[in-house]
Amino acid sequence: xxxxxxLVSTGCRQDMHDQPKFIPLRANDFYPxxxxxxxxxxxxxxxxxxxxxxxxxxxxxxxxxxNDLPFKLDAKVLARGxxxxxxxxxxxxxxxxxxxxMIVQRGYKRPPTFHQDRLRNAPVGHFFDVMSNGFGAMPDYxxxxxxxxxxxxxxxxxxxxxxxxxxxxxxxxxxxxKLTAPQTQNEIRLSDTSIKNPQxxxxxxxxxKQ
Length: 210
Description:
Blueprint lengths: L1 H10 L42 H5 L1 E2 L2 E2 L9 H14 L1 H4 L8 H4 L11 H4 L3 H10 L13 H19 L7 H8 L12 H4 L14
Antiparallel strand pairs: 1-2
Helix pairs in contact: 3-8, 7-8
């Protein structure tokens, strides 16, 4: 009888329930200010890297999605955005952003096209927020794509949207002249023998399909 009582009492111990831990925001007499939650040690670096710019990490000014980039936009940023977009986004959204990527063609749920009015009018912070937190059937990409690259992708998505609605007036006179200028000797022409005879192109794989 005594042995059975000991076994039962041993099995009912509350060690897991009564753990020596601090419950957030609960008072604790150990510290003079009676706060169990302590301030970070001076010099502590956040997990995602130190920054005081919360907009850079959230895409929001307070609770509102922003429509500005947290850094200067240039050709290097767009090139990086295009590179990351083609790796992480194009499989679903396609290279032109119409939502007909390869895995969608194989049966995955189609995402909305970036070229509808709702997304053309959406602030650029919206795209950063969706990449960071996911939306609908889309998972978040916060672990795969760092914040700076998410912003670069968002900038590139905006460029894709502009490209589908661009007119001649959107191109500067200098750039229009480049587009209409006569071909130089360094440009490939359709009449080149290298195009007519693919076997003569350097580096062309031989044999069957690759």
